[in-house]
Design a protein that fits this description.
The protein is an all-alpha fold and 308 residues long. The chain has a two-stranded antiparallel sheet. The chain contains twelve helices and two strands.
């Protein structure tokens, strides 16, 4: 009964994107079974995919299920939206959409999944891009997350109330990424990590993020949440907790129809389902890399409440 209700309510929230997702599977089913998302996106234009993703995330944010279940689903939805994007540019834009539209409380689980999926190098479980290309992707995403969450006097857009969390978690995700292509598997250097913070336009945001991002990388989110905003009692207005996983999984999954270059040879990657978790953020198996290749080219109001 609860699953049925959730399906109906998500359908209502997503009716506005029916025109950009004709032929897609049942939207309620997509929100609760994220492995079907990539297939539903395959015929969408770049603009249609962004509209589809925004509406799907908005609906998933308000699913009437336990918080742990919802956050686990959102992590998988985020992965599948990026995996289902057609090229490097679309993947970068989808990363921006994920970090600006997903429920802030789901960002720890999302970060865990994405940071593994973005491994850099030429091994089978890595994206075949250089460190310089990875940094370009990171800075592209970071600067656009900053812009989309900032106030815009020209349009009258107000700043996102959780902009600091969104920006910090975006940077923390890229700082967590490892792979054989990053300084012989040691990850980014301190200077390279600092350059990601330095890509922010606002000097004030740079300063605050610079003070809290190192803790966020280590999954200590309290400093970031306190800096984001406190209530009258001095408590964070938004509190995040670690995802329910003790280690980042190492075994990747493949993408359908991709043939990345590994070690100079073309290799077909076998696809598999991304594991679904009940009642937890925990990711038992890691996602496949997002397969970037050279050259690089919201609110919590329940969306189904108005359904009669």
């Amino acid at each position: 009964m609860i699953k049925h209700l959730a399906t109906l309510l998500v359908l209502g929230a997503l009716c506005g994107v029916a025109d950009v997702a004709k032929g897609a599977a049942d939207y309620g089913d997509l929100a609760q079974n994220p492995t079907k998302i990539a297939a539903a996106m395959k015929d969408l234009s770049a603009e249609g995919a962004q509209a589809f993703a925004t509406a799907l995330l908005k609906a998933a944010n308000t699913l009437p299920v336990a918080e742990e279940v919802k956050n686990g689903l959102l992590a998988q939805i985020a992965y599948q939206l990026i995996a289902g994007s057609k090229n490097n540019e679309s993947k970068k834009d989808m990363l921006v959409t994920v970090f600006t539209q997903a429920d802030p409380q789901s960002l720890p689980g999302i970060s865990d999944v994405i940071s593994v999926g973005l491994r850099v190098g030429q091994e089978k479980n890595e994206n075949n891009i250089t460190k310089a290309e990875f940094l370009e992707i990171a800075k592209y995403v970071i600067t656009r997350v900053e812009k989309k969450t900032s106030a815009d006097a020209a349009t009258g857009t107000k700043a996102d109330a959780n902009a600091l969390i969104r920006i910090t978690m975006t940077i923390a995700t890229f700082q967590r990424v490892e792979g054989t292509g990053l300084n012989e598997g040691k990850g980014l250097t301190p200077a390279e990590k600092s350059s990601l913070v330095g890509s922010l336009v606002s000097k004030d945001i740079q300063t605050v993020v610079g003070n809290v991002v190192a803790a966020a990388v280590l999954k200590n989110y309290k400093p970031m949440c306190l800096a984001n905003g406190i209530d009258a009692k001095g408590n964070p207005t938004v509190s995040l907790t670690k995802a329910n996983t003790t280690t980042v999984p190492k075994k990747p999954l493949g993408f359908v129809g991709t043939t990345p270059q590994v070690g100079g040879k073309e290799q077909t990657v076998v696809a598999d389902d991304f594991p679904r978790q009940e009642g937890t953020h925990e990711v038992v198996d890691a996602p496949p890399p997002f397969l970037f290749s050279t050259p690089l080219s919201p609110a919590t109001t329940y969306e189904g409440q108005k359904i009669k």
